[in-house]
Amino acid sequence: MFEELTLKLEAALKKVTGQGKLTENNISDTLREIRRILLDADVNYLVAKDFIEKVKVKSLGKEVLASISPGQLITKIIYDELVELLGGGHRELSLNPSGLTKIMVVGLQGSGKTTFCGKLALRLKNLKRKCLLVAADIYRPAAIEQLKILGKQIEVEVFHSEIKNPVKISEEALAFAKQHNFDTVIFDTAGRLHVDEEMMNEVVEIKKIVNPTEILFVVDSMTGQDAVNSAKAFNEKVDFDGIVLTKLDGDARGGAALSIRAVVGKPIKFVSNGEKLKDLEIFYPDRLASRILGRGDIISLVEKAQENLDEIESKKLQEKLKKNKFDFEDFLKQIKMIKKMGPLSKILGMIPGLGSQIKNADIDEKALIKVEAIINSMTKEERANPKILNGSRRKRIARGSGTSIQDVNRLIKQFNEMQKMVATLSKKGFFNQNKNFKFN
To answer: Looking at the domain that runs over 302-433, which CATH code has it been given?
Structure first.
């Protein structure tokens, strides 16, 4: 979502990079450009104005040390203010450690409420919570069926009823949850295409019955300032506890994400950045600020790797690397791990310095699939001992994988070069010196 904003901010900041010192003139010129960039990104006018004023006050009077450039200094100031604008630190979801945790999910129709309920249930299930999903949206066609399908996918029970009264359904769901020893209940409430009095009254009534531990407002990041306006309306009525930004992987300008916390005064708790049920992340203001300024997000990248890393397999691989016995079977396991982490463009975008470089790059997401197909077409003997891959074997592998002989030759050449590199590192004792080293 923020690629365009990142590129423009990087260009604006370059104008002061070569300056000998920060002056009122070059600060004003740079901040005028940044203000225009923020407004183009659909950031709320008052939010943008306040942000620029704070950066300006902090920039003026700051002495530039010999070890840093004016560009680095103002970038640091902007980073700090972005973190503050986005909420400072991350806010945890409130969970009742002993009694029943009741989470009420509200928002407009089409914001992604129902899908988020499924994602949240999966996340809490992985934390050993016994979750119950409640289908309290009786108006949107197929809303109940969608929640039932999601519940089946993640093996979480869904409470639904033929009663056409969301308040009564919520009341019965609470009784059901207590009777069957659930510790977490997630209420998927109804939305409309726009804010109206009937919907708001219904949400207020459900809140009275449920007495929720936490109310989360789900908003479509791609709806711009409309998202901010609907957030204000919902907050005035139900006083929600946190915000969930959905569709953060879209191509919108990002203004809602940068404005909503400042306008409503409530923390962003989660971001949904993909279609898969595991594509839900805790919101960290510092990490998003870092990505917006083109610094990447190496912490999230490491966390993604750890989520998909098998510790036992990692240790086995480390021993193979020490003995220089890394083969195509090991290579295949690493490819599968990378694929679990998500799209290549998303992974590469987390690496500092690569975000802007891959903006217009032709990243072939199918490349890993092709490599995987080639390795899968090899016999176990061929994977373990690539040296036996003669011409006839390579032709058979190409036919079996639906690729060309050139593709097979290219992969084998790249693998041989990788083996040589591993052999060199092994001779130098690299894997022995780095006891915590993990090849992933």
So the answer is: 1.10.260.30
